[in-house]
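Lab notes, practical 5.
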Amino acid sequence: MHEKEFTPELYVVGAGPGDPELITVKALKVIQRTPVILYDNLANKELLDFARTDCELIYVGKHPYGDYTAQETIHEIIRDKAFQKGMVVRLKGGDPFIFGRGFEEVLFARQVGIATFYIPGITSMQASGFSDIPLTHRAISEGIWVLTGTKKDGGLSSDLRLAMNSNATVVIYMGMKKVHEIAETYILEGRGDTPAAIIQHATHFKEKSGSGLVKDLPAIAERNQLTHPSIIIIGGVVALKNAH
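Output from the prediction step:
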């Protein structure tokens, strides 16, 4: 008899924003049974304690503006480990499909014959509620614009001007190197007095934040010693954190 051939599997899993208890039950069950976990810099390392004792744990993190594991290298590890051990969990901070390059890994895996599965995670902007900032609120915000602060070419998203002229909350990921440019863009549009907040390490024990007006974003960041990883939230909903 021939041994039954297995189909290698990749699970792209969201680890949530920082608090390990915010991971989904589905994600936790997958972590508990996989033989390999590839985890990044933003995934809480406490989640690895739930892995099998024989699970192979491989760090493939990317520090913003610093050392990183090349995406091509991650792809190679996914392919090699999936065919060797049958199953790989790619554990990514927040949600893998929101500025996380998770779908790039899904597409690569499919191209080489690996079955793929996606398990969403709570993304960091949703954690703003822990700071008393709802992303929407009746009569204040009619929607949400979610932007990257730094595009692939290094520039600020051109959608920011469109977003700021809407009645929506603006959420900017990976924007800390652009706080001066973001503030200046709002000032030039006559919207410098829009409430704004920066939240770093949302829901994590290291969390810190600051708020004020968007024209003062650089000062808010400096005063509160805020760097990356952070989200920037701009809009009337930020002012609700001080409501009574």
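Observations recorded by the TA: The chain has a mean pLDDT of 92. DSSP finds six helices and ten strands in the chain.
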